[in-house]
Every structure is written in C-alpha cells, then in structure tokens.
Amino acid sequence: MADKKYTAQQIQVLEGLEPVRKRPGMYIGSTDSRGLHHLIVEIVDNALDEAMAGYCNHIIITLQDDGSCNIEDNGRGIPVDPHPQLKKSALEVVLTTLHAGGKFGGDDSGYKVSSGLHGVGSSVVNALSTYMRAEVCRDGFRYVQEYKRGKPVADVKKEGKSDKTGTLIQFTPDTEIFDTVEFNYDHILTWLRQQAYLTSGITISIMDARKKRPEADQKYPKLYRFHFVGGVAAYVSHLNESSQRIGDPIHFMKEMPEGKVEVAIQYTQGFQECVLSFANHVHTVEGGHHLTGFKAALTRTINAYARQFGLLKEKDDNLTADDVREGLTAVVSVQLAEPQFEGQTKGKLGNAEMKTAVETVVNEQLARYLEEHPTEAKEVVNKCLLASRARLAARAARDSVIRKGALEGMTLPGKLADCSSKDPAECELYIVEGESAGGTAKQGRKREFQAILPLKGKILNVEQARLDRMLANNEIKSLVVAMGVGIGEVKDMSKLRYHRIVIMTDADVDGAHIRTLVLTFFFRHFPELFENGNIYIAQPPLYKIQKGKDMRYVFSDDEKAATLAEWGAKDMEEEEEVEEEQLEEGDTGGGEEKQSSKRKPRVNIQRYKGLGEMTAQQLWETTMDPESRIMLQVTMEDAEAANMVFSTLMGSEVAPRKKFIQSHAKTVKNLDV
Q1: Are residues 492 and 432 located together in one domain of the fold?
Q2: How confident is the model over 131-146, as a mean pLDDT?
Q3: Which residues are identified as catalytic?
Q4: How does 170-203 read in b/e, with b if 16+ C-beta sit within 10 Å?
C-alpha cells in the first residue's frame, strides 16, 4: 500500500555547504577531537600541495587565544580573479562550493600531485566554522574575504599592496558541530613532524599563542619549528631512536610512470614491526596497494639474496613475510597524479598500479643495496633466519598451549573464574593483580557476566621477548587461552570471549608496572582490542572517609581534600600529629582550647594500599558495579606515537627511557613512592 504522505514535499534539497553541516561525519569522519583536528589537516594539506609543486617552503600554524587557528603559507596564493562560469571570485568559489577545486584542472593546473583539494577540504572547514577569514597575497596586492558558517559576509576586497605571495586561513570551529573545540598541541605536533619528514626541505612552524594553555600542553615550548633535510630516511631514524639499530637506514627513491616512489627501511634488534605508508603525504593507516607491493618485494628480494649467496640452503624453506618484517621499521611514500582514496578520511590507497610501481623499485633498488653492502646484508638475512627459527619454535609452543588447553576442558585455565553468560557483548574479564585480590573479586563479582583471572606477580615484558618465550610464561599462557582468540598466525578476533577486558591492579607503583606490562602485551599482539574499544582500566578508590554515619569513597588526594573541606573537617592523622606535639610541649589541652577541639568534627580515613584490603562487598560497590564504578577506556588515536612510547618505556635501550622519565617526571600525579 502506497504511503500518501510520502510526496515531493518530503524530498529535502540541501544547497551550497548545507550538506556538510547536516552530515559532518561524512566529510571529516567524526565530530569528536579527531574530527576537530582534521580541520587543520585539510587546510595544511593545501599548503603542502603548494610545497610539493615547488611553490612553498614555509608553513606557519598559530593557535589563537580566542579558539581560532591560523594557517599561513608562502605559496602562490589561491586565485582571486573571476571564475569564468560562476562570474565571482575564484577565492569565494573554492571556499564555498563543494567539488570546486584547483586540483581538477589537469596538467595545466600546476598540481602534478596533491593530497588536499582546494574547495573540497577548504570549503568543508568553512562550513564547520562559526567564522573564517581568508587572506591572499598575489599579483602585488592583498585580498580578503570573511565568512560565517560557510557563507560570505561580503565580496572579496582588495586591501592594499603586498610584496609577498601566499594564503592565510583563519577559522574558528563551530561549537554547535564539535564535541570539543580545544586543540591538542601534542596531537598537532606529532602530525606536523610527520609531514615535515615527508616533505624534505620544507619548514613548518607552530605557535601556541593561547594564554591559558591546557595542562597537558604546558610541557611543550610555545614555538616549535620542524625542518628535516633527510626526508623519510630521517623519519626512520627518528622512529628507531629508542631501539638497537642494525646499520644505517636504507633509502631509495625513483620516478616511475605511475608516480614517485620513496622508501626507507632499517632493521632493529627488537621483534616489533613498524611500517608506515603514505600517499601524497596522507597517512594511509589501512594500507593499500603501495604497501602490498612493498611487502611482496621485500620478501622476494631478501629470499633471492639469501639463496644466491648460500645463506638459505636448498633444503630450507623460504623466509615468510613475517620473518623478513620482524624488527623492521619502514616508511613507504608514494606521490601520484590521481590518488584513489577509500573513504573521506583517506585511510587506504586504491590505485592498483602503485603495487607494480613499488614492487619494481624495491626489487631493483634493495637488491642493488644488498649486493653493494654484503656485511649489512648478511646481518639483515641472519636476523630474518633467526626470526624464522623462532617462528617455528613459537608455532610448536602455541600448538602445545592449544592442545593443553583443550585437555583441561573448554580450553580455559584452571584459575579462571568464568562467567555463565556466553554472549561476548555482555561479558567482562577482570585481570586482577594477585591471588588475594583475585579471591576477593571472585566473591564480590556478578557471576552472570563477570569473569576473574588473577595474575601471579609481574608478567613477562613482551617488548623484549619472542612468541615462543612468551608462551612459556604461565600467566601469559593463561591470558591467551582465556581470551579464546589464539595468537600469532592463528589469531581470530571474532572468537573473543569478552568484549570488555578490565585491568584491575593496586593503586601503587607495582600495580602501575603490572598494568603497563599487560598493556604492552595487548598492544604488541592484540592491537585490535584498542581499535575496537575493548580495553579498560578499573579505578579502585584510594581512600574510605567516614564521619559518623556518613561514608564516602574517594579516588585521589584532591578529592579527599575537597571532601574534608565540604564536611568542615580535618584529616584525623594531621590532628593526631598536632596533639602529639602539644603533649610534648606540656600542653594538656585544657580550658577553652579543649572545648573548641571537642566541637571539631573528626573523620576516619582509611588508605587502601591494595585491592586485597577491601571486602568483597566494598570491591563490588566501588570498582565492579556497572551502576557506580568508574572505568577508563584505553584508546589509540596515534599508533605511531603509541609505538614509540612502548619502545621507549619497555625496550632494551636505557638512555631514551631515562630521558623520557626526566622530561615527564614533573607532570606525574598521585605518585606513590
């Protein structure tokens, strides 16, 4: 039966930039912090396109005190002459019209390669800003136009002469669109550093002009300037600065008919792989054909060299892709005229021809390097051969774990107190420090959906261990079997038995260390858990404060002080110290002072040194009850930054870790020593 109410009147036509404001997530991915910072990415991308075309060598980003952001380049400046079809300034066209850009014009447009699209990225930023101001210097004059939520306030105006060229865009993100409009200086720095490495010779400056800077940003100088001559080779050195390296970075670059290919690789003595891929300076986090070509060529070339020079015998199997990438750090950067990105946020490169281009360059250039540097080549191949032997040992250990788990029944370790529900979406696994706390948690939990796995002591630091040694560790073995997804080659995340994995440790230094070891294990072998939001950190209280019948749990020293101030009370421990001093001085506390002291409300404060000090009921009420608990979800916004932090803190190199601790010691809160 036809719906008579569904007529042409229900068809909504959105004009201009209205679609962007209606569905912002379609254009910038999301409206959270990530989407907010994507606005900067879109404008800087346009400036980087000018740099790649050879017209720009300096980009300046300024975070203003009013919440706006200024981005200035010394390129040619966006054209301001009248558009032949629309009969208005090209500046207004590219900033107010979707799909009207300077990158669609073919070879005569001046852009052989590009990542941003004037009029696509810029117009989206304009639409999602309460205010935007564009200032263009070109042809000896300075031109200005202002906009409010994507609409021009007035026509483009000529405001005096100028002897420079370039574009300055100022925008203020719209609070009606974004969950937060506060820029994260650290996040911007990380991305800008990456872009400076990828564009050899360019200078990128960022100035934080905010008077009240967020506390997290105060550890950085207000002015940063990036300028790297070595390109992606310098980038690889930066990524490996906290690792034991094998030789210098191997760097090669070649112009192909399909586009420009630039690759830098370096092996470390570690076991972790870090391969980053870029297309026209866009970080393709999901890879693409250029990354596929690189991996295939790397495996083929190293196997061919090992066979040719007798490092692999006839009876030996070829090295696998995993073998040749163990301990590898690499950056693969391609530039092409017509990039086909999958998704608006450009996470994956879809140009199939780039697979062949990258394969050809890596096969040719890497083979030449290995032949010309036999000492380094032998060290790299021996590293891969060791990885191959370890892989076979790990497979045997993993199969042993799986067989043993099956014999113990339902593949679950004996000390796991499992939940009765079989729906992973509602199931929680609490990883608890110590048998004592584990016993308390087992008594206090809701058996229907909460499982408890106690860990005995500190698990192995997997940053410095291969899979075979890991699986010899009983605690890690229990954790792998309990999760149910397998590990290594047989890992299948669809079999995850718990969609919430909660790390619950004591609120002291040892607890923090155990939590870090567990997070390292998950990050190195199950990064999908962070991407899918499966990892949480429980927040047990630090204190129980009681005054008469009133009782409250608090989670920090600041919260304790606020509670005492609210109750008009003092810390009982502080009062006892004062009384002891008075008795030593011969003061019996009589008279009016004694009467005054009696009127002061007194409180009892219990400091929880460990989870085992709580009763089962207290642990449930404070830390495990979904209705009242506080949990921190662990996410990963920047995989590269996370990789460097884990390498620095958990790797074998001491100097980078010492430097990190010295740099961040003053920002640590609730340090229990």
Answers
A1: yes
A2: 95
A3: 433, 506, 508, 510
A4: bbbbbeebbeebebbbebbbebbbbbbbbbbebb
